[in-house]
Amino acid sequence: MALKEGLTVTQTMTVTDKDTAIHYGSGKLKVYATPAMVAFMENTAIACIDNDLEKGMDTVGIQIDTKHSKANKVGQKVSCTAKLVKVDGKKLSFEIEASDEEGVIGSATHMRYIIDPVKFMGRL
Questions:
Q1: 112 known ligand binder
Q2: 20 to 30 A Cα–Cα from 108, which one of 30, 47, 63, 95?
Q3: 61 annotated to a ligand binding site
């Protein structure tokens, strides 16, 4: 397996109406929703390892510990950086940070598990 600790990737997006707490049902305000940020963090972790993951394999998220420390309005740019900090067999650990133009808006530790998608789906 080519996965090495230290792999890092950054992605950027612009907050839209579909990313707001009112849209997600996680609040009543038109601000960047915590569930939207968590999804962006998981997506960034996936992007961090996608090119180095063994062909035919995939990952599933098994744990995320998140802090959402600053609100953002529609139209603001948000960046997310994920770093693979530990490879323990099939268990992958990430440190993730989300930020806007002014600084950090959220952080997380995240674990993903490498799976064979055919076998995984066959067990459901």
A1: yes
A2: 30
A3: yes
